[in-house]
Amino acid sequence: MRPMPDWLKPSARVDLALVLARTRDVLRSDLGAPADLSAIAKFARRYGLFAAKDPDGFIALSRRPGLGRRLLALDAAPDEHVMPLGRLLGYPPCCCRAARRVGEDQLDVWAARPRRHIGRYRLIDVSSYDTGEALVSHIPCSAACRASLKIARTLAASDWSPTRFSSAKRLRSGRRGCRPLS
Ligand SMILES: [Zn+2]
Fold first, then answer.
1. What's the 132 CA to ligand 1 centre distance in angstroms?
2. Separation of CA 146 and ligand 1 centre (Å)
3. Is a pLDDT exceeding 70 seen at residue 181?
4. Residue 24: phi, psi to the nearest 5?
5. How far apart are alpha carbons 160 and 139 in whole angstroms?
6. Cα of 98 to ligand 1 centre, how many Å?
7. Which end of the chain, C or N, has fewer beta carbons within 10 A?
8. Is residue 43 within 8 Å of 5, Cβ to Cβ?
């Protein structure tokens, strides 16, 4: 991927790649460094995307105008919204249901639980998501989630695949464990 602005966190680059590979329509992230909406919107336009930002420093980049604002409003709402938020973010229904069962306040603990990905399912290992080396940006419902694997394969086959992650050496290494996703 081209050089990225410092306000876009490495993890958000995975999300951006997934939007550009058309596996989903919108991403959400918090800012890695201060930036105003005009700079974010200028960056988004380069990729044919629309930008939104909320007062808490969360941003959304979307394929459709208004979608990012809708997402940020839903995320800021006080009521339980794991399922609709996950679906709006393009996460597989099985993974959204699993996240809802776990509960929003336990998601980080759930994500940090060690998982053993075998064979091709190493593609859905999100243990290095924070450093931008992942092919999915959600917490898969299991270490062998087929819907997540489909997303990972779509990104891997696209022009937007994170190159470092796609090295054979890395895939063979089979790292375990997950860091919390943002
Ligand atoms: Zn799943």
1. 21
2. 7
3. no
4. -160, 170
5. 20
6. 8
7. N
8. yes
- Residue 2 CA to its chain's centroid (Å): 18
Tokens 């609709």 found at? 84
- Which amino acid type is present at position 30? D
When pLDDT is cut at 50, 70 and 90, the band that residue 162 belongs to is confident
Cα(158) to ligand 1 centroid in Å equals: 21
| Residue 164 CB contacts under 8 Å (≥ 6 apart), including other chains | 132, 133, 170
Distance 147 CA to ligand 1 centre (A): 6
Choose between 62 and 112: higher pLDDT: 62
Residue given tokens 């930036």 in the structure block: 35
* Distance of CA 104 from the midpoint of ligand 1 (Å): 16
Q: Ligand 1: distance of its center to the CA of 96 in Å?
A: 7
